[in-house]
Design brief:
The protein is α+β, with helices and mostly antiparallel strands. The chain is built from eleven helices and 15 strands. The structure holds oxa(dethia)-CoA.
Length: 360
Amino acid sequence: MTLPPNAVQTPKPLIGDKGESGENRMTTPQPVRAGIAGLGMGLPERVLTNEELAKFVDTNDEWITTRTGIKERRVTDSATATSDLCLIAAKKALADADMDAADLDLVLCATTSGDYIWPATASLIQNALGAKRAGAFDLSAACSGFCYGLATAAGMIQSGAMRNVLVLGADTLTKQLNWNDRGTCVLFGDGAGAAVLTPCGYEEGILGSVLGSDGSGASSIWLEGGGSRNPLTPENMESGLNKLTMNGKEVYRFAVEIVPACVRESLEKVCLRPADVDLLVLHQANVRIMYAIADRLQIPHEKVYVNVQKYGNTSAGTVPIALCEAQQEGRLNRGDVVVTVGYGAGLSWASNVIRWTKGE
Ligand code: UT7
């Protein structure tokens, strides 16, 4: 039997050099961190504005704008699944990193709306990319997923277990919405973002992360049906268990309380303070939440990246999409301290402190 190409991986030494006569000579491996070498995003073309939404939902542009900051969102058609958006994002991220898919060691996809319940969406992406050497798995941490993914991939790269990791954050939650529930259906959009992580110097890259969870709040935002607790029977679907439900006020309170403490802790871990932050890239759910978090940290609003007005809440997609657009706008410069933060269902939260490695 011939083994598939990814069954046996030849380990590459992280650090090696040539002796004076040109012979290969192993040196003591230098400690490394993981840096973001490339970013990409994938969005459906269809734009759904607040005005259009108000034609079939009992809502209006004024309510949505003042309560959330959202003006429009992107919506996938029935033929498009999460992996399709991921593929667009992944190809752009690889091109940005100047890397071939064949050089990836791992594809890690953070999503709660994968193409299927199983197998992993990451495996579909790995195949479509032709990432023949790469392992692949999904990570389920809802809107915190991409930040959980960065922490996971960074640990693998720092340990020397992996070299090149593609981390994706992507969701198509519009397929899970109850369009009769105006408290949720106006908030979400579809989208994917991707980051290529590679080893970098020890003083830069992902310096530290904090991960948190409080499962006692699981029912504050969840999709109850489709798993082993409530399989998708006609009765469960009739009861609406196949649709996302949320207690908005509970999630709002949780975010404003927990996230500032999480950011502070992640900065303290690496001996930095909120005043050292150059760009705060928060999960884009609601501009009021973002500014309330920044105020508690005494970080000026100009340092908070905001694009929720264009895409709504794309769940695991918000942070990598925001990073990608921030890079396009020239807001990420080499040496900058960038803090990425996710929070949401679980309840879960995560923060990464990054010294930016890319650019001038
Ligand atoms: O990624 C996961 C993270 N999720 C979040 O971060 C969401 C966090 N929560 C929120 O952002 C806010 O709680 C919402 C934006 C969801 C809601 O804002 P709110 O200020 O908490 O509004 P509310 O739910 O207390 O509703 C206030 C009023 C209600 O009317 P009455 O009972 O006061 O007459 C709602 O029925 O607004 C009404 N309402 C709407 N009106 C027009 C709720 N949704 C809508 C709507 N259009 N879409």
